[in-house]
Specification:
Elements: E1 2-9, H1 15-21, E2 25-38, H2 44-47, E3 50-56, E4 59-68, E5 76-83, H3 87-96, E6 100-114, E7 117-124, E8 128-135, H4 141-150, E9 158-159, H5 163-168
Antiparallel strand pairs: 1-5, 1-8, 1-9, 2-3, 2-6, 3-4, 4-5, 6-7, 7-8
Length: 173
């Protein structure tokens, strides 16, 4: 599945109010714990790929993210599967296959829906606040940039880096 996404560092807390004023609906809030892994035979970072385990309220998801394919957004292939069992079993399986844990990222995420776009306001431990806007296909790119404009978020605050990449570069809150 193709994921079309932009991410911006937030320097103001009023984005939630603006989203609601624009007609966005609040969906839910949850804590997400992500653990990223190194591949035993190839360097994910140099290939712009990622493999992670995400834990949300006791549910486990295994996700592969492919290389970014767009210069302005974080558009990339994403394959995510819900995994039965517990986090420890998934870690053990990956360890047996030669994968090693790389980084843990913890965030509080608020979900909003605006014109069929998924809008997330994230508080990432050690990194600060971010906005992510995600569409289902390339046809959503224009709508994503329209929302950024309505929220008064300058294009200069956008980053194509994942939270993992930001942490690996040593950027802090």
């Amino acid at each position: 599945m193709l994921e079309v996404e932009v991410k911006a560092k937030l320097f103001s807390e009023n984005v939630r109010e603006k989203l609601l004023q624009l007609g966005a609906s609040f969906v839910k809030k949850e804590k997400q714990i992500d653990i990223y892994f190194n591949h035993p035979c190839r360097e994910f970072g140099s290939r712009d790929e990622a493999l992670r385990i995400r834990k949300i309220k006791g549910c486990i998801y295994l996700t592969y993210k492919g290389p970014k394919i767009d210069e302005k957004t974080k558009t990339r292939e994403e394959i995510e599967v819900k995994v039965e069992g517990d986090e420890g079993e998934v870690h053990l399986l990956l360890k047996k296959l030669g994968f090693t844990p790389l980084q843990k990222i913890v965030k509080e995420r608020e979900f909003y829906n605006w014109q069929n776009l998924k809008v997330c306001v994230d508080r990432v431990e050690g990194l600060g606040n971010f906005l992510e806007i995600e569409g289902k296909g390339l046809e959503d790119r224009e709508k994503i940039f329209k929302l950024l404009d309505k929220l008064n978020i300058p294009l200069s605050s956008l980053t194509r880096d994942s939270y993992l990449e930001i942490i690996m570069k040593g950027e802090k809150e």
